[in-house]
TrEMBL record:
Domain CID: start-end pairs: 1-133
Protein name: DUF618-domain-containing protein
Native source species: Aureobasidium pullulans EXF-150
InterPro entries linked to this entry: CID_dom, ENTH_VHS, Rtt103-like_CID
Any Gene Ontology biological process: mRNA 3'-end processing
Biased composition regions of type Basic and acidic residues, renumbered to the chain: 252-282
Biological classification of the source: Eukaryota, Fungi, Dikarya, Ascomycota, Pezizomycotina
Length: 322
């Protein structure tokens, strides 16, 4: 069968879980390795549109293709799959059951053991799987805590009711930025590494065909890294715009609150002064009443001024002298 997009799609649609099917389709794909980039694009397209069991079969197919390519020292498919394998593996892992997830993890472990992909690509793939696991843990925790902020995450969106309404518009831009950064870092590292190798003056120049192939591969890596960084730039700009909008809104509210605070402080000081005046007046009134009472008491006659009755003397009068 000649190579064409429809032919690739037909092969991918006919793929099943048997070893014979996976090996047969992989051999056909490898035979048309000149179209590795396009095949990888169609493979990712098919994976995104497939159900979980089919996604697992497509991961098995990619595994067969890249391992056979590695064994034959043909890096066409390794170069083609490197920019997309982390995303694809994450999609398959996220949508699958615990059983299919375990199988996908095993495939990723084999890639590390056999050094199938560059270390940066391998690390990025494992990181994406770890993020899925962490997101699942956060969601289950949020359910146990009734959707509280402790169990949810502003990024995962698993507990949007726990996120303040003012912050909800920032959740998706932040999640987009995190995904963009995660996807860009391994691509940047790969592009920089390959660029350093190819431009090193101490590295012997290979034959023209090999040199041309390596330059072509480097161009693809640079383009992939550039595109990933561009996506990250867009995501960060979107997040910054949202943050600036939130900041501007809070600055306006801050001005209003400062004005209100000044008014309330002034009113409180005025009322305190008025209260003090009233209390002082009360105290002055009490003092005047007390002074009047004392003056009235001093103006009354003493009890001895009315005269005391005569008291008969107990001493008898002296006897008359005879």
């Amino acid at each position: 069968m000649a190579y064409a997009d429809d032919a690739v799609r037909a092969k991918l649609s006919a793929l099943n879980e048997t070893q014979d099917s996976i090996v047969s389709v992989a051999q056909w794909i490898i035979f048309h390795r000149r179209h590795a980039d396009r095949t990888a694009e169609l493979w990712l397209e098919r994976l995104k549109d497939s159900n979980p069991p089919k996604k697992l079969n497509l991961i098995y197919l990619a595994n067969e293709v890249v391992q056979q390519s590695k064994a034959r020292k043909k890096d066409d498919f390794l170069v083609a799959f490197s920019p997309i394998i982390a995303e694809a593996t994450s999609l398959a892992y996220k949508s699958g059951t615990q059983d299919t997830g375990g199988k996908i993890k095993r495939v990723v472990e084999v890639w590390r053991q056999r050094n199938i992909f560059d270390l940066a690509i391998q690390d990025a793939t494992e990181k994406r799987i770890h993020e899925v696991d962490k997101s699942r843990t956060a969601r289950s925790g949020g359910a146990r805590l009734g959707g509280s902020l402790l169990g949810g995450s502003i990024l995962s969106g698993s507990s949007s009711s726990a996120v303040p309404p003012e912050l909800q518009p920032l959740a998706q831009p932040q999640a987009n930025l995190s995904r963009s950064e995660s996807a860009a870092q391994p691509l940047i590292k790969t592009a920089n590494t390959e660029y350093a190798k190819l431009t090193d003056p101490n590295t012997p120049v290979p034959s023209p065909p090999v040199h041309a192939a390596r330059l072509s591969s480097l161009l693809k890596n640079l383009a992939s890294a550039e595109g990933a960084v561009n996506d990250s730039l867009k995501a960060r700009s979107e997040l910054i715009a949202g943050l600036e909008k939130l900041l501007e809104s809070n600055r306006g509210k801050l001005d209003e609150e400062q004005k209100t605070h000044s008014e309330l402080s002034s009113r409180r000081a005025t009322i305190e002064a008025k209260k003090k005046d009233v209390e002082d007046g009360i105290m002055r009134g009490l003092s005047a009443d007390a002074s009047s009472a004392v003056a009235s008491a001093n103006s009354l006659p003493a009890s001895g001024d009315h005269g005391s009755p005569e008291v008969e003397s107990f001493t008898p009068p002296p006897p008359d002298v005879e």
